[in-house]
Amino acid sequence: MELNLEEAFDGPVDLSHRFEISSERLDRPELLRVEPILFSGRLTKAHPGFVLDGEIEIRGAAACSRCLAPVPFSRSGPVHWAFAPAHRRAARDEDETELAEGDLAIIWYDDLKVPFDPLIDEELQLEIPMKPLCRPDCRGLCPTCGADRNAGPCACQTK
Ligand SMILES: [Zn+2]
Ligand SMILES: [Zn+2]
């Protein structure tokens, strides 16, 4: 999906979209599944640029890094993006405008049509746990026979 910033010139625009995510695109082998990501929000003209405020709903599961069992993750909450014209970027360092306030991630655009999918991918990437664990004391798989040691000791351990 593409964001057409131009649409907000005449007033705020309400947007909602369901993103079908292909897990191959994310290059996270531990990702087992991801539900379509739901976004709804409002694009508003700012000075300079635009802001997009909304709610995002992310749901999926990643493999436990020790035993490979699915570990669900989810997030449902606010998201905020600020868009500013790329030519303001250089000026920003000399002139601390309102854009420099806060710790906002600014998306610099050359064109009023901004690809939305990479922004959604980024939110998802942040949500996938770095080292998923099904439980803090997961015993993992036996390196010798591959048995799930959470289910009990395997034959290797009795030798
Ligand atoms: Zn586990
Ligand atoms: Zn074993």
Number of spatially distinct domains: 1
**Biggest sheet layout:** 6 strands, mixed
Q: What hetero molecules are bound to the protein chains?
A: zinc ion
State the helicity in percent bands.
10-25%
The overall average pLDDT, rounded, is: 89
**Distance between the ends:** 58 Å
Report the radius of gyration as a whole number of Å.
Answer: 22 Å
User: Which class best fits the helix and strand makeup?
Assistant: mainly beta
Beta fraction: 35-45%
Order of helices and strands: EEHEEEEHEEH
**Helix segment tally:** 3
What best-fitting shape do the alpha-carbon axes yield? elongated
Unreliably modeled segments = none
Q: Report the strand count.
A: 8
Your description of this structure?
This protein is mainly beta and 159 residues long. Helix content is 14%, strand content 38%. It has one domain (2-158). It has helices at residues 23-26, 87-94, 117-127; strands spanning 2-4, 13-19, 31-34, 37-45, 50-63, 70-85, 106-109, 113-115. Strands 2, 3, 4, 5, 6 and 7 form a six-stranded mixed sheet that branches. A two-stranded antiparallel ribbon has the order 1-8. It is elongated and about 70 Å long. The relative contact order is 0.20. Residues 142, 144-145, 147, 154, 156 line the site of one zinc ion (ZN). One zinc ion is lined by residues 142, 144-145, 147, 154, 156.
Please give a quick description of this structure.
With 159 residues, the protein is mainly beta.
What is the topological layout?
Blueprint: E1 2-4, E2 13-19, H1 23-26, E3 31-34, E4 37-45, E5 50-63, E6 70-85, H2 87-94, E7 106-109, E8 113-115, H3 117-127
Parallel strand pairs: 6-7
Antiparallel strand pairs: 1-8, 2-4, 3-5, 4-5, 5-6
